Amino acid sequence: MKRIAVIAAACLIAAPISAQTVATVNGQEISQQSMDSFVSLLVNQGATDSPELREQVKQEMIHRLVAVQAAEKAGIDQKEAVKQEIELARQGILVRALMADYLENNPVTDEQIQATYDELKNEQGQRQEHRVRHILVDDEEKAKQLIADIAANKISFEDAAKQESKDPGSGSQGGDLGWAASSNYVPEFAKAVEALKKGETTDTPVQSQFGWHIIRLEDSRNASFPSLESVKPQITEMLRQQQLAQFQDELMKNATIK
User: Fold this and answer.
1) Domains of the chain and any CATH numbers
2) According to the 3-state scheme, what is the secondary structure of the chain?
């Protein structure tokens, strides 16, 4: 008898997971395999596999099945609007799965990442960035008077910015906008920055959509380019999106559409 019991236990242990049932709801089984898949999905999203998580998943699956059974009993699943929503959800799942499968079979390589990094670095290697101060006021005459006062050393640029600039972010910092490429600014402002030499201040106010600016160029330098490791995730994602776009284009080209 003891030997039979041991053999029976061994067979139970060896039984496939899919044959195990974690719960039965109105005669409909919830399999261990289904629950494991649900748990794996949550773990991939950042959850930690634990007995507590598995119990929560089990209860969630039971609650869902009870609600689904009630919906089917009431004929909700046969309503046209519900059928259409279910079909759209099915299509969305299949499309996401297709794209994930394509990326899994066509992973972005280190060689592709390096080549893209080198190309970007070469394109932006000569890009300059500037350290700029500005004073922003509403009135052109006010801006002209401030330019004259700063030129006559009646007030420093920094103090004028603190007292008169309506840009609260930079005004309290003496007008300092920090280091940035001129392309970060609106066109009128950018053009004025690029025309200045180190230490120069615009001799006339510069108008933009925000008001009237007095601009000083503190310094210029070649922009530093980030290391490969620091931008590798962004480059990888960019290449993945490019691959998906090309894959979708190929699908459309090969499809018969009338």
Assistant:
1) 15-103 (no CATH), 128-222 (3.10.50.40)
2) CHHHHHHHHHHHHHCCHHHCEEEEECCEEEEHHHHHHHHHHHHHCCCCCCHHHHHHHHHHHHHHHHHHHHHHHCCHHHCHHHHHHHHHHHHHHHHHHHHHHHHHHCCCCHHHHHHHHHHHHHHHCCCEEEEEEEEEECCHHHHHHHHHHHHCCCCCHHHHHHHHCCCHHHHCCCCEEEEECHHHCCHHHHHHHHHCCCCCECCCCEEECCEEEEEEEEEEEECCCCCHHHHHHHHHHHHHHHHHHHHHHHHHHHCCCC
